[in-house]
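Researcher: Next sequence.
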Amino acid sequence: MSVRRLDPVLIDRIAAGEVVERPASAVKELVENALDAGATEIEVVIAGGGRNLIRVTDNGSGMGPEDLALCIERHATSKLPDGNLFAIETLGFRGEALPSIGSVARLTITSRRVGDREALMVTVDGGQVQPLRPTAFGKGTRVEVADLFYATPARLKFLKTDRAEAQAVADLIKRLALAHPRVKFLLRGDDAPMLDYPEARGDTEAEASIERIGQVLGRSFISNAVPLDVYYEDVGLGGLAGLATAHRPSANGLYLFVNGRPVRDKLLMGAVKGAYADLLPAGRHPAAVLFVQVSPALVDVNVHPAKSEVRFRDAGQVRALVVGTIKRALGEAGHRASATVATRTLDAIRTQSSLFGGSTYRPAMPPAGGWDWQQSPAAPDGLSSLPQGFAESRQSDYALPPMADMRKGPEGSDSAWLAHPLGAARTQLHDTYIVAQTQDGIVIVDQHAAHERLVYERLKRERAERGIARQMLLIPAIVELDPVEAARLLDKAAVLAELGLVIESFGPGAVAVAEVPAALIHADVTGLVHDLAETLEDWGSALALEDRLDHVLATFACHHSVRAGRRLRPEEMNALLRDMEATPFSGQCNHGRPTYVELKLADIERLFGRR
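Model: Next structure:
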């Protein structure tokens, strides 16, 4: 078979297979063109999920007759004035979008520059270009795409429902709006959620960005996140990183941008995952909005047809900056947990109440004739039998302590203890949960989960500063294991020794523990070694050494922590609360579960119908 040149229309349709995958892909290309044209207002209208109609209108610079005739030709662009592919500062640059879309749909472009007497329109129908003709239109450009993929009907079979395609368009508009807070975005459509994002105000770009994040993701996201703002050498990182307890079931809550370009870059996603490595439960994902700024000469945006991935010249530097910045910001947040923990708790209480036929409580008004407190079933025993007049004169002085447990409170002023973020311990329930009172609510702490995180952070700090202190056992602990597990454990003996655990072979299928970390001197050594053997089995080649060591320390901490079922003295409970306030990441345990739940007094009052 001889070699021949492909038909230009066929070339455009092949290119459309890479550039225009679905309606959202076409919207992306058109909106990026509007942004590159300097638009401050962009309106997007879709019908049929975008397959019937896509209309993008902007107030950008517009095009004259020469530009309008040339923009629908392949590889014609205004965005590479010097032809330099190593310093791309625009969103689009290939010149493939408009001809590709025109080859598989009915494309109409209307545009007018400032100062021109009239607007011009050009139509491309399945690759066939119609002559330019004058029309009425204001400043800017309007691009209409009708009957997408009508010229390649096989592609229609791969599209999802209209609602799903419209949702993909909405998600795209959200990402572009987050990247460009000074631009007004409007989305309308029969199947699409209406989006209206006015221009974000703010004296600085960071303030405008925060306001736009609130518009797109809600104020609750901002209140459950920590700000990022750092610049190191040639790379900057800004945005918001969600608290670890505000995790999501999928990665859809992660928004990544490089030089204003929305991306789904594997390097950046892996860096974010690494920053939250020991903070999230298994199967959960962080929520964050991250803006990476880097010199255009140090990033290649031309590695993916849809420009959704990038390649950094110094990938290690970017990853280190992302991991380090997020970890530091979350660490500075200390014990802080997201409000979603309390929300889930309240929802669970309301759900249980509805299951048992409960309803919102409305306190009854007292009887018209007054209320005799002595006849109440809740009256204290013996008080109603006091001499006539005595109970009445003393009832203002009769008060039970505001706690379920009659233990003596902490030394010092009670108001000073209540001023602490986690308040003053009042009682311990089921020898597992500490109940503390704050100035405006209550805190319920899982003592084992909280202490597990405290020990873990202490061990990590010791390892980083001076190495983990070891304590020799008077009598070595002999632990019997499966021969394979014992061999695996002994293979890592040198690494474990650096972490404070010294083991030796004690015959087939057994090891002798000679030394343990000083912080674990009272730990269950046998259980620790068994769990450690299982942990080592999960070590994969993809895990970095730092992550592996942290896995081991997390296992250590779990076995040394205060166990559920241990009764604590008041001073021990308050000491635990104060340590939590001073320790980073103490809002969640090593497995990502929350260590405490805080309920505001207003929330509790709503449960009882007092609000």
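Model: The chain has three domains: 8-196, 200-332, 335-360+415-611. Confidence is low (pLDDT under 50) at residues 359-366, 376-380, 382-409, 540-545.
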